[in-house]
Design brief:
- The chain has about 525 residues and is α/β, with parallel strands linked by helices.
- It is built from 14 helices and 22 strands.
- A hairpin with a 4-residue loop joins strand 8 and strand 9.
- Helix 9 runs parallel beside helix 12, helix 10 runs parallel beside helix 11 and helix 12 crosses helix 13.
- It is globular.
- It starts with a helix and ends with a strand.
- GO terms for molecular function: serine-type endopeptidase activity.
C-alpha cells in the first residue's frame, strides 16, 4: 500500500499540543504516600551501582566519547545485577532499566510497594500514572511544507553538498506505519538507511509488523516526523526534509490514542539504547504536560523547570555527559491561557526546543508554546514554519542539525546547538515566543567556515510613548515584539511600514522592542 506525504498529514492524529501530554504525581518513599491501586507502574530509583561493572556501550559510542573528551562515568554502567536479582526474588519484574537515572520501572501492588520501599538500596519511588487521551483534529487536504524549506534556505545546504550523509539520527515517536512504502521515504529504505527499529510498547512486534500494522492513527506520527527530517518525493520533485542521506534508528515509545505515563520510561530506555550505539542526534516530537482524568495529578506549569521531571533529567544527562543533541518540539498550547508554556523535556536547558512560526511574518503562530518566565535560560531556542504543530517544526531543524554535523563531524552537541542559534534571524535578540528565530542555512555555512557574518542586527535607543524608526525593507508589514525585559514578550503584532518608516507605540510595561525585518533585526531600548 503506497502513501504520499500529503496523505500522512491528512491522517495524522494530533493532540491539542500535537504531542503526548502526560502527567505526574510524585510519591516518595520518605513522604509516606502509598499507592492508590494495585498494578500501578513506578520508577524505582536506586542508591548506587556495582563499581566494577563495565560500561554498557558499543565501541563506536566509546570512541565518540573520547573524541569529544567526554569521560565515561557511573551513568554508563548498567543497573546493579545484585539489586535486580533481589527485586526479581521479591516478585518484582522490571519493565525498563535506566543506567542514566539508576532506576528501573515496574508495576507494583500495594504489598510490593511497601516491600520495595523497605529495601535498603532503594532511594525513592515515583508513580508513573495511567490514562491520558490524545484528541484528534481534522487537517486540511493541502499541507504547505514548501514554505519552510524556503524559509530556512534549504537550497544553500544543497549547493554545499550537505544532505546529512554519514550522520546517524535517532527518532523516538509514537509509530512509523507505512514508512517503508511512502513515496517520500522510499529512497531511505532503498539504500538500507534505516539501520535498526525498536518497539518499546510491544516488544513482540517485528520490524515489518511495526511498519505495516496500524493500531491507531497515532502510528502515522513518526512516519510524518521522519518525512519532515529526510523526505524527498522524486515523483513530484518535492523535498520535504534536509537530511535525505542520513541513517536512522527508530524507536516507538508511545502507544495509540490512550496514553500511559509509563511511556516516559520507554522514552528513557530508547534514549539509552541509541546512546549505546553511538547516535549523537535524536529527534523527539513528544512532550509531557497534563491530561490526567484527575486534574489533581497533572503536572503544574511551575514544574516545567528543566529538572523536576525525570525525562528532563535524563535529557540533561544526555546533553552534558553523552554528547547527544536532542531536538524536541516545544508544545502546542500557546493558545491555552491556563497553560501556554512549553512541555517537558523541552524545558531541559541542554535540549534544542523548537517552536513554530507563521509563514509570512515569521512571528509565533498562535498554538506554539512559549517559554516560562521563571527559566533562567531561553526557551524555545529557535523556531520555523509549521501549520500542523511543533511536532513537525522540530524535525525540520533536526535535518538542519544533520547538515551542520556532516559539514564538521568533530563539533560537539553544544557547538552544533550554538551554530543553529547563531544562524537564526533574530540572533542575538531572542525572546520566549520564538527563541532566536528561524535558522538560516547561509549563516550556518558561514559559521562553519569561520567567516564573519554580515551585520544584520543593530541597537537603537528611544524615549517617550511613540518612536518613529527608519527601516529598509520591501515588506509592507513587519513583526514587532513588545517586551518587558530583554527576552520576555508582552505581545507581538504586525506593524505597517509606510515611506520607509515604522511607528512604534510603547506599552505601559515595555522596556525593549524587537523589530523583525527578516534580513535585519533592530532592538529598541526604551529610556
Amino acid at each position: 500500500m503506497t502513501f504520499r506525504l500529503i496523505m500522512f498529514f491528512c491522517l495524522l492524529s494530533l493532540s491539542t499540543q500535537a504531542q503526548l501530554n502526560v502527567v505526574r504525581p510524585q510519591p516518595n518513599v520518605s513522604n509516606g504516600i502509598q499507592p492508590m491501586q494495585s498494578g500501578t507502574k513506578y520508577w524505582v530509583l536506586l542508591r548506587d551501582k556495582d563499581q566494577a561493572s563495565a560500561p554498557a556501550l558499543s565501541q563506536q559510542s566509546i570512541n565518540q566519547r573520547k573524541t569529544q573528551n567526554l569521560p565515561l562515568d557511573a551513568t554508563d554502567q548498567p543497573v546493579s545485577a545484585t539489586y535486580l536479582k533481589q527485586l526479581n526474588e521479591a516478585g518484582v519484574k522490571p519493565v525498563c532499566q535506566s543506567r542514566w537515572l539508576n532506576a528501573v520501572s515496574a508495576k507494583l501492588t500495594a504489598q510490593q510497594y511497601a516491600q520495595v520501599a523497605a529495601m535498603s538500596f532503594v532511594k525513592e519511588i515515583r508513580a508513573i500514572d495511567p490514562a491520558i487521551v490524545i484528541t484528534s483534529l481534522n487537517l486540511p487536504v493541502n499541507p504547505q511544507l514548501a514554505p519552510v524549506m524556503t524559509q530556512i534556505q534549504a537550497s544553500d545546504f544543497a549547493q554545499a553538498g550537505l544532505t546529512g550523509r554519514f550522520v546517524n539520527i535517532g527518532v523516538i515517536d509514537a509509530g512509523f506505519f507505512g514508512a517503508d512504502s511512502a513515496n517520500a521515504l522510499k529512497h531511505i529504505f532503498a539504500r538500507d538507511g534505516v539501520k535498526q527499529i525498536r518497539d518499546y510498547v510491544n516488544e513482540k512486534k517485528t520490524h515489518n509488523n511495526l511498519l505495516r500494522t496500524l493500531e491507531t492513527m497515532s502510528d502515522f506520527h513518526g512516519t510524518e516526523v521522519l518525512a519532515a527530517i529526510a523526505g524527498n518525493d522524486p515523483t513530484d520533485h518535492i523535498q520535504y526534509g534536509l537530511a535525505t542521506d542520513a541513517s536512522f534508528y527508530l524507536a516507538r515509545s508511545d502507544q495509540g490514542n490512550r496514553e500511559y505515563r509509563g511511556e516516559e520510561d520507554n522514552w528513557v530506555a530508547a534514549m539509552e539504547w541509541m546512546d549505546s550505539l553511538g547516535v549523537r542526534l535524536i529527534n523527539t516530537s513528544l512532550g509531557y504536560a497534563r491530561g490526567m482524568s484527575n486534574p489533581k495529578d497533572n503536572y503544574e506549569p511551575s514544574q516545567m523547570d528543566g529538572h523536576t521531571s525525570l525525562i528532563s533529567r535524563a535529557a540533561q544527562i544526555a546533553a552534558d555527559k553523552k554528547g547527544i543533541l536532542i531536538i524536541v518540539s516545544a508544545g502546542n498550547e500557546g493558545d491555552d491561557r491556563s497553560w501556554r508554556i512549553i512541555s517537558t523535556p523541552a524545558d531541559a536547558e541542554g535540549v534544542l526546543a523548537i517552536g513554530a512560526t507563521n509563514a509570512k511574518l515569521w512571528n509565533r503562530i498562535g498554538y506554539s508554546s512559549i517559554g516560562p518566565e521563571s527559566l533562567p535560560y531561553l526557551k524555545p531556542n529557535v523556531s520555523c514554519f509549521s501549520l500542523y504543530g511543533t511536532s513537525l517544526s522540530a524535525p525540520v531543524i533536526t535535518g538542519f542539525a544533520a547538515c551542520v554535523m556532516q559539514a564538521n563531524p568533530k563539533l560537539t552537541n553544544k557547538q552544533v546547538m550554538q551554530i543553529i542559534e547563531k544562524s537564526s534571524h533574530l540572533y542575538p535578540y531572542g525572546n520566549n515566543f520564538i527563541g532566536y528565530g528561524v535558522p538560516q542555512a547561509s549563516r550556518a555555512i558561514a559559521l562553519l567556515r569561520n567567516q564573519e557574518l554580515p551585520a544584520t542586527n543593530r541597537l537603537v535607543k528611544a524615549s517617550g510613548k511613540t518612536f518613529t524608526l527608519a527601516v529598509e525593507t520591501s515588506e509592507t508589514s513587519v513583526s514587532v515584539f513588545h517586551k518587558k525585559d530583554a527576552t520576555h514578550v508582552l505581545q507581538q503584532e504586525a506593524t505597517k511600514v509606510a515611506g520607509g518608516k515604522l511607528i512604534l507605540h510603547r506599552a505601559a510595561d515595555e522596556k525593549q522592542t524587537t523589530v523583525d525585518l527578516k534580513k535585519e533585526v533592530i532592538e529598541v531600548v526604551w529610556e
